[in-house]
Amino acid sequence: MMLREPARVVEVNPLGNMTTPLTGEELMANNPYRPWPARITSITDLTPTEKLFEFRLIDERIREAFRHEPGQFVELSLFGVGEAPISISSSPSKRGFIELCVRRAGRFTEALHAMQCGDIVGIRGPFGRGFPFERMKHHDILLVAGGLGIAPLRSLINNIHDERSEFGKVTIIYGSRSPSEVMFRDQFEMWRHRKDFDLYLTVDHPDDTWDGEVGLVTKPFEHLELDARHTYGAVCGPPVMYRFVIDEMRKKGIEYDHIYCSFERHMKCGMGKCGHCQIGHQYVCIDGPVFNYWEAKNIQGSM
Amino acid sequence: MSETYPQGRRLNGKGVRDRNRPVRVVIASFASCFGCQLQITNMEQHLMDVLGQFELCYWQLTSSDPMPESFDVAVVEGAVTTEEAEKQLRELRERAKALIAIGACATTAGIPGMAAKGFYEHPGSVYEHVPQACGAMISPRPLSAIVDVDFEVRCCPVDPYDFTIMLQRALYGSNKLATTRMLCSDCKRNETSCFFGEGQLCMGLVTSAGCGARCVNLGRPCQGCAGISPHANLASARKSCERYGVSVSDFDEKLEMFNQTNQAMHEAE
Amino acid sequence: MLYRVIDAEERDALVSAFMQEYEVVAPVKRGRGYVFDVIESPDEIAYDYSTTTASLKKYLLPPRETLMTFNAVDNCITEHAECIPPRVIFGAHACDINAINRLDQVFRDGRYPDPYYTARREATLVVGMSCMPTDDCFCHLWDADEARFGYDLFLHDIGGRYLVSISSVEAANILEAACNPRVATDEDRSDFRQATRTRQLSFNQNIPDIQDVAMLMDAFHKDEFWDELGGRCLSCSACAAVCPTCFCFDLQDRLSPDGTQGERYRVWDACTSPQFAEVAGGHNFRPDGRERVRHRMYHKLNGFLANYDRMLCVGCGRCVSACKADINPIRVLEFFEEKGSEHDA
C-alpha cells in the first residue's frame, strides 16, 4: 500500500524561524496548547498560605506579544506536575512581567509553592474575558473582594490606579478571615492615605492589632453612599459570597449589567473545548471568567 | 465515606524531591503474596531507569538488611493482620514523608480481607483451645484504615507502570487525580462487547477504572480487584443486574472478594 | 450537489481504489457488535451494520493523544511532530457525519482552532452510506438523519445501485477512476425518493417527538425527575465514551521511567465522571450523579444549541445500549411527553 504523501504534521514549535514581532493572535494561532518558558523572577510571601509570584517570559518576542486585560487568566505549567489556570494579578500596564497570586490549596499550587526564584515554568495565554475596563471609565467603581478574590481584582485595582483620573470615586471593600490573611495591605493603605481610593478592610476574626472593621464583607454596605446610576460593581471571592454581596449592590440600586463577578472553575484548556469549566451553556474560560450579573443569572447552575 | 482516593494527603501534590540529596525509598511488605513486589521487577528493561532516580535503602524482597532509621518514601504492600504489623506501619508512617500503598491487599485488604467477616469468632470454631499466636492477630484491614496513605496503586497485582507513575508523583509532585469513575467506559473505548449483554456478571459496574479493563480485553469479566469506587452506586448496579438477567446474589457475593472491609458495602445492604 | 449513479457491484472497486492511497477504516463485525477499524480488504466491511459500539470520533480525537514532549530536567518543550496518515472513513451513517460536523464547529471553526484535530480532519475523507433506523435511533428528531455536508461522497442505497452525492474533487477523481458513474435517470430519482420515504417511516414511533425540548430543559431544570434519573447513574461515563459528539478531555503530564523526559497528553474525559467539576482545594461543583446527568443532558439538548444553533445529540442511540442504568435522551423525551399528557388529562 502506497499511502498518499505528505501526511499532515502538527508542529509544536512552529515559531522557530519567525523574525517579525508577534501579535497576541499569532501567538495563539499556531499551537495554543504550547506553553512558553518563563522564569520566576521574584517570590513574595503574602500570608502563611499565599505567595505572589512574578514571572518573566524568556523569549523576547513572546514577552512583547503578551498583553492581557484585568480579569483574564493564564495556564501555568510545571512540567511533569501539570497545568492549572491562574488569574493574573498584575496590571496590564506592568509590561514584561506577569504576577500571579497563588494560595497553597491543591496539588498544583503546593508544587508551585515549593519552587524557587530562577526556576523555569511554562505559561500560555492570556485567556478569557476580563472586566470591561474601557466601559467602566468615567464611572464610580465599587470593588468587593473576599479572601483570594483579591487576586484577579488586584489587576483591575492596579489598572484603575494607573489611570486614576479616568475614574470617579473608587471604593474597595476587602474581607478576610483574619488579619494575617489580608494581602497587599501596605499598598492599599498607601493609596487610601493618598485619597486615591476609599478602602474598607474587614475581618471575621480580629486579633489585638486589628484596627479595621470586623464582620462579613457586606457590613461596610451599611454606611456606604454611592451614586448607583453611575457605578460599576465588581465582585470576586468564595462562591458563598456572591449572592450576599450582589444583593447588597442591587439594594443600593446598581443595575444588573453593571455588576461584574469573576467565576472560579477548573479551566483546563482555556479555549472552550475541554468542558471542565462549563456552567449551564457557558464556558467560564471563553465566555468568562468575568460575567455581569444579568448574564450570570441566565446561566443554569451559576449561583 | 471519603469522596476520593488518597491524593497525597500529607504531600498534597508537592514532591518529596530534595534538590541537595537523593530521595531515600524503602519497600516493605505485610500480609500478601509478595506478587506486587515481584511485579516491580517485571519492569525489566525499565527497572534500572526507575531505580536510578532515588536511593533504594531497603527492599524486603531482595535483601535481609535491616530497615534504616530515616527515609523519605515508604512503599508498602499487603494487608495489616497482626498487632506487630500495625505497630510497624505506624512507625513507617511516622518516618516517611510519603507512603504509597501498592496492590489490592494494601488498598482494600484484598484476599486477606475476605477473613474479616466474623474474624474473632473463627479461631474458636476451629480450635478447641485457641493457640496463643492467634491472640496477636487482628481483623485484616487496608493500610488506610490505620494511617494516612498518600498514594494508592490499585489492582491484584499492580501494573508496574502504574507503580512507576505513582512513585514519580510522590517524588516530583503532580496535579493528577486518581480516577474514581467506574470501569465500564474503558470497555466502550476498547469496544469490547459487554458481558451483561450475555447475562454474565462483570464487576466493572462498581469497580474503579484505571487498569484499562485488562481482564475484559482478555475475554474475562472484571473481578473487581481495584475495589469499589467511593462513587460506586451499588443500589443501581443491583437493579442493572436484574435488568440484564444477572443474579443479584452472585453480584453481592463477588463484592466480598475485594471489599470485605469496605464500609460502603455494609452501609448499602 | 453533484449526483451520479453506480452499481452495487462497483462498491468493492471503490473501496479498493481508496485503499491504494489511503488507510481505510470501515465498519467490521467484532464480538456481538460492530466497530470501525482499519481494513485489509473490502470483504471485511459489514455494509449493512446497524450502529457501531463506539463512534468515529476516535479518528479525529483519539482517546489518548500526545500533544507535546518536554525535558523535565531543563523544563523546556522538546521537538515533537505528530504525523497523521491520510485516511478514508468508509460507510459512515448520516448521524455520525452530523456528529463530525459538530466537532468541526468546536475544534476547527471556533476561535481557537485545535491544530491536532484540524490536521486529522484535513487528512480524512468521509464516505457516507445510507441506513435504516434501529429501535434505538432517533436522529430524525434532531434533523440528523440526513447529512447535508461534512462528507466527500455519500452512497444512497436505491436497490442494487447507489445514488452517490459527490462533494469533493479528491473523492470525485477516485470515484471516476474506479467505477463507471452515470447520470441519474428518472427511475433512479424516483427510487431515491422511495428509499428516503421508507427510511423516514421506519423510525420507532414510541420515541416521543418533542420539538421544544431545549426550552423544556430550562423550564424543568429543578424538577424531581433529575433526582430519579441521575440517582441511578453508575458514574462510569460509558455514555460519553460511545457518544459521537462528547468531546470533553483532560490534559495530563507523564514522565518517562527515568524521570528525565515527559509528555503532555490529552485523554477523553466526561462530565458524568465524578471528579470532572472539581476545583483546586477539592470543592466539587457537581458532586452527585444527579447534577452530573442533568448537566450532560442540558448541554446535549440545550447548552450547545444556545452557542452553535444545533443540538449536541444526533440521536445515534449508542448511549441507549451503553448505559447499564437506562439513562439516555429518550427517557428525557418520555418525561416531557408525560408532562404534556398530564396537562391534557
In short:
Chain B is an alpha/beta fold.
Report on the structure:
The complex is a heterotrimer of chains A (303), B (269) and C (345). Chain A has 303 residues and is of the alpha/beta class. Chain A has 2 domains: 31-127, Elongation Factor Tu (Ef-tu), domain 3 (Beta Barrel), CATH 2.40.30.10; 133-297, 3-Layer(aba) Sandwich (Rossmann fold), CATH 3.40.50. Helices cover 22% and strands 29% of the residues of chain A. Chain A has 9 helices and 16 strands. Chain A has helices at 24-29, 60-65, 107-113, 133-136, 150-162, 185-193, 239-252, 284-287, 293-297; strands at residues 8-11, 36-45, 50-57, 73-78, 82-87, 98-103, 120-127, 140-146, 170-176, 198-203, 213-214, 231-236, 259-262, 278-279, 282-283, 290-292. In chain A, helix 6 (185-193) links the parallel strand 9 and strand 10. With 269 residues, chain B is of the alpha/beta class. Chain B folds into 2 domains: 24-172, NADH:ubiquinone oxidoreductase-like, 20kDa subunit (Rossmann fold, 3-Layer(aba) Sandwich), CATH 3.40.50.700; 184-268, no CATH class. In chain B, the strands form 2 sheets. A 5-stranded parallel sheet of chain B has the order 2-1-3-5-7. In chain B, strands 4-6 form a two-stranded antiparallel ribbon. In chain B, 50% of the residues are buried. By secondary structure, chain C is an alpha/beta fold. Chain C has helices at residues 11-21, 94-107, 115-122, 169-178, 186-201, 213-219, 225-231, 238-242, 289-308, 318-322, 329-344; strands at residues 2-7, 23-30, 33-38, 64-71, 76-78, 81-84, 87-92, 124-129, 153-157, 161-166, 249-255, 261-268. Chain C folds into 2 domains: 2-63 and 81-201, no CATH class; 213-344, no CATH class. Chains in contact: A-B, A-C, B-C. Chains A and C meet through strand 1, strand 5, helix 3, strand 7 and strand 14 of A and helix 1, strand 4, strand 6, helix 3 and strand 11 of C. Strand 1 (8-11) of chain A pairs antiparallel with strand 6 (81-84) of chain C, so a sheet runs across the interface.
